[in-house]
Amino acid sequence: MQKIIRPLIQTLAVLGIFSVMTVGCERISPNDSSSSSFSSSSDVEGMNSGTDTQKSQEDTPEYSPQKEIKYYGNIVIPGYEGIKLAANVWMPKADPAKVRFPGIIFINSWVLEEHEYVLQARKFAQEGYVVLSYSSRGWGKSEGLVNIAGPNDMGDYKAVVDWMVQHLPVDINNIGCAGVSYGAGISLLGLAHDSIVKTAVVMSGWANLGDSIWGANTPRLAWTRFLQETQNVFGHPEPTTDEMIHNMLTHQNIDKIREWVMPRSAVNFLKEYNTRKPPVYFSHNLADDLFNPNGILQFYSQLTGPKRLDLNQGIHATAEAVGLLAIRNYAWNNAHDWFAYWLKGENNGIMERPPVSIQVWNEHLLDLGITGGEREEFSSWPSNRIGENLYYLTSLKQAGTDGILATKASSEVMNSTTISSGNASGITTGFPIIASILGAHIKADVKINVADINRSQAVLYTSEPLLKDTRLAGVSRVDITIEPSNTEIQLIAHLFDVYEGIASLITMGPVTLYDQTPAKQIRVEFELIAAARTIKAGHQLMLAFDTEDGLYAKPTDKLFQVTFVHPAKQPALLGVSVVK
User: Cβ distance 417 to 395 under 8 Å?
Assistant: First the structure.
């Protein structure tokens, strides 16, 4: 019980402190002046400033304060088309006419505002950076409507960069940007739109917004509703946002959706990135059901400039969240090293380390992103250290029995298996969002008794017990032949680690099909969400399919059936990505 209670208390404490920090952080300012803006660097001395000489308790030398620093709050920056953006600045205390510092721009996460990074900004300032944090339009005290990383946000990004160069003592050749989640997406896109910013730190962002929220034609229902409702409560949404979400959830006006996501997806600016080659550091989480890691892995592999990718255990932004308190955190430590190397020229070893690391799930490790855990490291991605174990989905001759994950294809004629749609399969990923947090950070992963699975709504394929420990790492895939009964269907594939009849969820992946011909066989290939986990010798792998999960929007309320066919000439496959 202590294993569960203690991390929960830690998590609640983090959320509580973070809430106080974001709501009440105006009190950090030594003066209580009203909002104003300034037009030149000399004006900084006259507004809401103070000197902070508090000593850090961190043992890490590079994070210890070296200079007196100053804070400026209630700053207003003219954004694109004249809207006002709320901002604040931390910087070393020095004569701006004589000294120039590297600069960092922080952009807010969804729901939050310019005070989100106040503790990290202060820490960076102690290390010798000028740090500007701003609320993107529609959030906090910033004017305008939430543009979801669209053209207006890019206009604001450019305006903020220009303002920083004109009004703060920054070295124009050494400016970086960073953000978590929403701020990460804008930071990454900004590199393609403004050549002044040298590098970016992208934490739990996205590269392809369409694939992230609507990949495999499957809308991320739980996360989409969460984003929609929080935007309506805490932000100022554009009128078209609800319409776009409705179209996505109901599969209408698809061309309009694709047009909307195009300028909001970094993958559509690969030419710009690979021409300019700005250095990019990615931190992302393996159980991120919102911006799943597969898209970041693919985008990373397409970039030709300097780059680093750390994949952590956690869901959306959870591995980075603790670092906002400026305490020890794997991703934020790397962010400090990244900026120190690229903006200050410090040879701290980050570029000598293998550029890709993947944290392996450990049932005994309680981790809130602090230590970084056990990791597999790779010199490149795709990596020649990653192989694929192929399993063939085989049906026994006896009807009504579970299938087999065989290591060799069968030439015999096999039975087909039919399942019906419905939410009573007995397979679950747990309560949306919450279950993923518990599984990733306190190891209370989803467990199912295999005997309790309803075979009328689910089909199972199980391997023989593994002869040796096998480490999964990367993206696994399924390639199957099915026969749908309706024009619209959905399948959810789940990969489990099974021991003594209890199945522990490793990963999953959905696919939704539209405009199908009923009773016509089709070949379907789709990916599971990237994972990293060691399957012990004696355990079994189990691949299970059903038709519904609370994370995803259903394509139809009509009942349907899916028949799994096992043709000998084109066998159904499970490709499991493993470390050689």
Answer: yes
3-state DSSP percent of the chain in helix, strand and coil, to 5: 30, 30, 40
CA distance 213 to 224: 7
Nearest to 508 by CA among 568, 570, 425: 425
**Of 43-57, 189-203, 364-378, 517-531, where does mean pLDDT reach its minimum?**
43-57
Tokens representing residue 300 in the block: 């990373």
CA distances from 96 to 40, 91, 124, 153 (A): 11, 10, 18, 29
Across all residues in the chain, what is the average pLDDT?
Answer: 86
What the block records as the tokens of 201 is: 């730190």
Tokens for 228, please give them: 């929609």
Torsion angle (degrees, nearest 10) of CA 359, 363, 369, 375: -20
Which among 166, 107, 155 has a CA at the least distance from the CA of 131? Answer: 107
In the 3-class helix/strand/coil scheme, how is 10-29 assigned residue by residue? HHHHHHHHHHHHHHHHHHHC
Sign of torsion over alpha carbons 259, 265, 269, 270:
negative
Listing DSSP states for 352-377 in one string gives TS-SEEEEPB-TT---SSSS--SEEE
User: Is 175's pLDDT higher than 50?
Assistant: yes
Q: What are the DSSP E strand ranges found in 428-560?
A: 447-449, 459-462, 470-474, 477-484, 489-499, 502-513, 522-527, 531-535, 540-546
pTM of the model: 0.88
Q: Is the pLDDT of residue 22 over 60?
A: no
Degrees, nearest 5: CA angle 248-251-255: 80
Torsion of CA 125, 130, 133, 137, to 10 degrees: 180
Helix axes 182-193, 151-167, angle to 10 degrees: 80
Q: What is the largest CA-CA distance in the chain?
A: 84
Distance CA 350, CA 281 (A): 11
What digits encode the pLDDT tens for the residues 68-112? Answer: 899 999 999 999 999 999 999 999 988 877 889 999 999 999 999
Locate all alpha helices (DSSP H) within 461-518, ordered by sequence.
Answer: none
What's the pLDDT at 245? 93
Report the DSSP beta bridge partners of residue 522.
Answer: 482
Angle between helix 434-441 and 2-24 (nearest 10): 120
Specify the higher pLDDT residue, 38 or 573: 573
Handedness of CA 554, 560, 565, 570 (dihedral sign): negative
End-to-end Cα, the chain, rounded Å? 36
The letter for the amino acid at 26 is E
Residue 370, pLDDT > 80, answer no
Q: Encode pLDDT of 304-359 as tens digits.
A: 999 999 999 988 998 999 899 988 899 999 999 999 999 999 999 999 999 999 99
**CA pair distance 266, 12, nearest whole angstrom:** 34
Please state, in angstroms and as integers, the Cα–Cα distance from residue 518 to each residue in 355, 489, 548, following that order: 47, 10, 19
pLDDT at 471 over 50: yes
